[in-house]
Amino acid sequence: MKLSDLNELAWQNLREAFLRNSLTTMGIAVGVASLVAMLSLGIGLQDMINRRLERGGLFDSVIVRPRVDMVRPGEQARNRVLGQPPPAPEVPAARLDGDARRELAQLPNVVEVYPEFRFAGDMRLVDEGRLTDVTSLPVSASTNDAFEGMLGHFFSSPNAHEIILQTDTAESLAQIENKHAADLIGRNIVLRYPGREKLPAESGNAAPGRRNAASTSTADEIMGFSVISSEIPLQVVGIVSADVVFSGGGAFARAGAFLPLAVAEDLRVVQGNDTREVIGNSLANAGEQYATLTVRVDRASAVPAVQDAVRNLGFATFSLLDLTRSLRRVFAILDLLLGIFGSLALAVASLGIVNTLVMAILERRREIGVLKALGASDRDVRQLFFAEASVMGLAGGAFGVLLGWGIGRTIQFVTAAYLRQQGIPAENIWLVPWWLVLGAMAFSLVVSLAAGMYPAARAARLDPVEALRYQ
User: Is residue 467 packed enough to be buried (19+ CB in 10 Å), middle (13-18) or exposed (0-12)?
Assistant: First the structure.
């Protein structure tokens, strides 16, 4: 039987039982719609999270820390008992200083390298102040989602003596004058902070009677510093309501105020890692060093290669991609579960195909007998029923994709309206990629053909003589 004759006969049979075949097709469409709607929500949520993290500079960043090779108690004795050599790092630990910062900036695919300065500061308005955590931000932080709806604007220049306040901090300061937080925009405040001043060699840096006899050289003395109360005038240019999530040593810590990186770098503020300089450094290692450096790369796919290059330089690294492997696994399992639940409706619809085609066999036994009497083979009969099943599968898949798209759009519209009503910016939680459309239609076709296997085989086994005798 020719392919054109087969298609014409299949369409004719479908038109004769139009209502029943349409209902079966609609059953397939509903199954495909549930599959598309569920998966589109899972894909949309994953895309929303990835998009926000990428815009926050977290996926394309590598946190670099000094590697500390510590001797653990009992480790050497345990290795001797077990006959194992002491563990030795392949690459010696390096010092994270200005030279290292410049060396990291020369690595392939690296866009920028910057430190983070985080300290406690007292913001003075008139004669009263509020204590809060202050952190530095590079210019690239202006693209962070947290600054989109901020009151005011981002720093006017990298070296501007300006400050951005978090809402809670701004409200606390405004209460000093019984004003609103928005009234602080454009006001000048004074930031007091713990500054560091290096001690001269002759002054010594150890209390009398506490000095180590072995540490009397100039190399040890020159590493001391004193903590002095310092201050700087700043202008409030913005108030941000959301917690800023940006890559850095304290990327997930909350800060009450933000300074331009260049300004914070010039303050010579005392940080937590400064005690390590006094304890472990010598004159040969004197100079500026960092607790952490953030290395931003041009694309997330280059992060693993940059991490390997940084480790080869003798530093420890951390990337959010290390944590998102578990997150991706969770989303993969979620998508699988959503796909399974969505496929249940399609499995139920496949029973409708079986029922429709089996009924067609009973109603068309005489027709099948005539076809076989005219020379149609068992294969031709099977192909005829497969063609009818595939038509219902493809039509149901197409209608199902449209219906699932409509369901997703409705959920997106209702969710956005609810978020706006609650004063929360609307988010796109729904996404239908092209591969989901093609996959849903292909899955619908496969299910339909699988459902048509039994009716097609049953029709092919009919005896033409018995079929012609059927009334």
Answer: buried
* Helix or strand run (H / E) with residue 77: helix 75-82
* Cβ burial 211-226 (10 Å sphere, 16+ → b, else e): eeeeeeeeebbbbbbe
Task: Please give the tally of structural domains in the chain.
Answer: 2
Residue 338 and residue 316 share a domain:
no
Assigned token pair, 275: 């005690």
Domain region containing 12: 3-55+327-469
Same domain, 17 and 101: no
User: Among residues 291, 300, 277, which one has the least CA distance to residue 64?
Assistant: 291
Of 288, 320, 352, the domain-final residue: 320
Asked if residue 31 and residue 67 are part of one domain, the reply reads no
Residue of 370, 432, 433 whose CA lies nearest to 404: 432
Q: pLDDT class for 314, splitting at 50, 70, 90?
A: confident
Helix (H), strand (E) at residue 124: strand 118-125
Distance CA 108, CA 86 (A): 34
Does pTM top 0.70 for this prediction?
A: no
* Residue 91 and residue 45 share a domain: no
Q: Are residues 287 and 381 in the same domain?
A: no
pLDDT at 191: 92
- Residues 6+ away with beta carbon under 8 Å from 138: 112, 114, 261
Last residue of one domain, picked from the residues 320, 348, 376: 320
Q: Residue 22 is inside which H or E element, if any?
A: helix 18-55
Token pair for 419: 């978020």
Cα–Cα nearest to 60, from 299, 294, 293, 246: 299
What angle is formed at CA 120 by the lines to CA 114 and CA 123, rounded to 5 degrees?
110
Confidence of residue 236 (pLDDT cuts 50, 70, 90): very high
Which residue bears the tokens 């951390």?
A: 318
